[in-house]
Amino acid sequence: MTPEANTLPWPAPAKLNLMLRVLGRRPDGYHRLQTVFQFIDCGDRLWFTPRDDGAIHRLVDIPGVSESADLTVRAARALQVHGGGRCGADIRLEKTLPMGGGLGGGSSDAATTLVALNRLWGLNLPEDELAALALPLGADVPVFVRGRAAWGEGVGEQLTPVDLPEPWYLVLIPAGQVATAAVFADPQLTRDSVPVKLADFLAGDRRNDCLGGVRRGYPEVAAALDWLEAVGGGQLTGTGGCVFAVFADRDAALAARERVPAQFGSFVARGLNRSPLLDRLAGSPT
Fold it and tell me: Largest Cα–Cα distance in the chain?
């Protein structure tokens, strides 16, 4: 292993859900969905130092998240057990993405852990096997493992790669976190949407069935959406609470950001059909 294996960061990019339809509830309580995932060019970063004693440690605490509940640690331990190896790792996470924002930060961190340690531990498990290992960690983890913008069905794990425009996004971060479980437990949630085709999405169907419940339960998210609608439209990613607007170019997105009220965090990012994690993997030292 070269020294660069320990010093170069592994990216954990954010995602946006560009639409979200709830088709029904499965016997196990999970909801059947249709969604579209696209990555954006911002996210967390991770560093991994392999160990030969089998220990797995995180080096940076996350407020409110114990080490045993941390998805990066859980992902590393799941891979360790599955691979039957004795390797361990020290994991350092530089957290940029907000928790509870619908940007997939924890899921992306878990996926990056699986992909990076699969390489650094020399397991060389195929992508399909890693994606199957990822699913118990969270429904969004497989799309980050596969690293391609996708049309998602099932609970979001049945993925078909799609080639989408890569516009610029203005993303607003309202205060607080949205509880995904509470959104899906909302008795007013639409659970019987009619399935659509990818062509419907491409023609402009960007419906998010969780929008109404999030608007009712989270006034700060509703205020962010109202502001975005005044500057050209706003959408909720997943169950939120981050919301976004689409712009044709970076300058237009930056100009809109200059007018964002101080009560909201915000950033501008480019849409990506290929995750930077795949580029890091392709160029990673061994």
Answer: 56
- Nearest Cα to Cα of residue 103 among 189, 13, 229, 216: 13
Instruction: Check: CB of residue 177 under 8 Å from CB of residue 100.
Output: yes
- Residues composing the chain: 286
Residue listed under structure tokens 């799941």: 78
192 is catalytic: no
**Domain coordinates in residue numbering, the chain:** 1-286
From the list 44, 70, 109, 140, the catalytic residue is 140
In the block, residue with structure tokens 């320990």: 6
Judge whether 139 and 214 are in contact, CB under 8 Å.
no
Average pLDDT over residues 180-207: 93
What's the pTM value of the predicted model, to 2 decimals?
A: 0.95
Looking at residue 1, its pLDDT comes to 44
In this structure, of 50-59, 68-77, 242-251, 276-285, the range with the lowest mean pLDDT score is 276-285
Distance CA 49, CA 57 (A): 10
Handedness of CA 253, 255, 259, 264 (dihedral sign): positive
Indicate the pLDDT class of residue 2, thresholds 50, 70 and 90: very low
Mean pLDDT of all residues belonging to the chain:
94
Nearest to 106 by CA among 46, 54, 51: 46
Measured between alpha carbons, how far is 156 from 135 in angstroms, rounded to an integer? 10
Give 77's strand partners. Answer: none
Answer yes or no: 95 catalytic: no
Domain 1-286 annotated CATH 3.40.718.10? no
Give Cβ neighbours of residue 65 (< 8 Å, ≥ 6 apart).
Answer: none
